[in-house]
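FAQ: What does a ligand-bound record look like?

Like this one, built around iron/sulfur cluster:
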Amino acid sequence: MTIGLPRALLYYRYSHLWENFFTGLGCDTLTSPETNKAIVAEGARCCASECCLPSKIYMGHVRWLTGKCDYILVPRLEGFGPRDKVCVKFNALYDIVRNTFKDAPLLDYDIDHKRGRGELAGFLRMGAKLGRPFFKTLAAYNSARGARQAEERLAAERQDSLMRARPEVTVPKVLIVSHPYNTHDNMLGRPIAEHIRRLGAQPVFADQASSAECARLAGEISPSLYWTFNKELVGAIKLYEKNIDGVVFVTAFPCGQDALVNELVMDKLKHSTPMINIVLDEIWGDAGIQTRIESFMDIIDARRLKYENNIIPAHG
Amino acid sequence: MRTISFPRMANYHVPIEFLLKSLLPGERVLPAPPVTRKTLELGSRYSPDFACAPFKYTLGSFLEALQEGADVLVQTAGGCRLGYYSEVQRQILWGLGYKFELVNLGGNEFGPLGMYRACKKLGCTVGYGRAAYYFALAFRMTAILDELEGYIRENLVFERPPGRFESLHGEFLNELKNVTGFESLRVIGGKYRRLINSVELTQPEEYLRVGLVGELYSLMEPFCNFYMEKELAKFNIALKRLINVTYLLFDKKRLASRTLKEARPFLKYEIGADGTDSVAYMKLLAERGYDGIIHLKPFGCTPEVNAMPILQNISAEYKIPVLYFSFDSQTSETGINTRLEAFRDMLEMRRKLRAK
Ligand code: SF4
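The answer part, i.e. the structure of the complex:
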């Protein structure tokens, strides 16, 4: 039996959990390829034009998987707690897919704090639906969860060790603050990171910092923020404050949620470090964005130069 | 004495003003001026580009209130992103150099208790019991307002010659300001219920029935939807709308499971904010044989955009046309009217074809 995993949105958060879980159940997984132009175009065709770009891309990936596997995994997420909500896109994703691709065989699980549905219960139900014995499912879930946590810890450690390098002997570090489904998508954020690297800087990623720590730190910047994913991203700025030379926010058009959060954060931290906000309303390739990144890097270099000459402290 | 102000939406400033005045005697309560083009322009100038229209409208209202000397602002909104509005708006207004206090009556603690706590923060000295009384009164006032406005909405099209509803409505709002307790509210409510119910109605032989669904602010604030309800009445269209403040405050939570059930088989889960309600209500009206549905939302409103593919399927299954509107600061009245007219023509055509 083959389970299809659309390489978009939550995949970038849960890929280790999903892959390990289904393998543990003795299923094969098929992940859609890296986003390409055809996938974007196909996704846009299936969506209302006002949908955010990442959700259009998601639909493109689901489309790609239809007919190629026995089930397509489309989870539904309401929230993790009363002050831990997610974008309503994740509330609706399952029903959107179901109403768009009527014949596609979907496999879903639901995380809904309001109704007391947690991850474990959701995975147990999936196991039952796939006809797997209870204890086998439980074991598969536990080891998959462990694998995901280990993977996350590893990513955070890798990034922390990058951070510990003394600033004056290394290249400038630029923190990319964006949802992992933007940051690591082949056609959205990855070209931005590559461009930064080409310009001689080291991109670091907010989504790879320790999420628990970041969620806690976010409260210092925005006390009323109640979107978990945004908290985890914004908190990374505080976490790495002393180690980074600049922040690049990347948002997808027309995401109103990120627009509000980023606006607030940029305003509150405007004196601490240079920041820009890049809005992707189409796929990468825009010369305007490249130029903006280049001039942003110039600002960072100029600041570092001043720091080296001890004219101003870099973070004061 | 401080001046307390809050953004207006539809006519709900009457009960809100009453409530704030009762809970905070000794302060001046001044609703922000009615929403106009200028409010939107002002709000858009200082908002993030992709903030939705309600954010811009309420920010504009705050600016207008501050210019009129308000020093305490109250955000009354709740909903999808609205809970986060006040923090961002506070920051923007501070950045512009205004000195004020901002409290959030909506947000995460939407409901009487949260509201009472917010009023406490403003220095409300009214005790629990007394406050509960005022809340009950304000909610009752809201319920009567919603009831009478609902009746007018559904019957506006039958009023010949038009005008009586509108003047009665105005008088009613004015008299609501004299309410002092449940008894006077009952008297005023009863009087206008009688008057409004006795307005003469003529049932034309042919008229269309259309349901309004969508995002709450676009539905309820007439300026935001370019007075669509009045326009539609002129087009010989009778309207039905579910969403009002009474529904959002009380019925929505209570009926949530039923709403989801009604939305089946189109939905399995709740799709966020009022999207589920849009789906369930459209399905209900489709089953009742309505002629069409109009869906309103601010541009980019995620929960309502989410509902669209589902509305589309209901439309196909029940053969009921839907007209979608997205409002942003560039929306023009002429554009809307042309589309409304075309929609009306299409619905009439379908009627005729079916009659044959
Ligand atoms: S947070 Fe923004 S980009 Fe992400 S799914 Fe929601 S609307 Fe789309």
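Follow-up question: can I read anything off the structure? Yes, for example: Residues A 52, 54-55, 87, 89, 179, 252, 255, 257-258; B 302 surround iron/sulfur cluster (CB under 6 Å).
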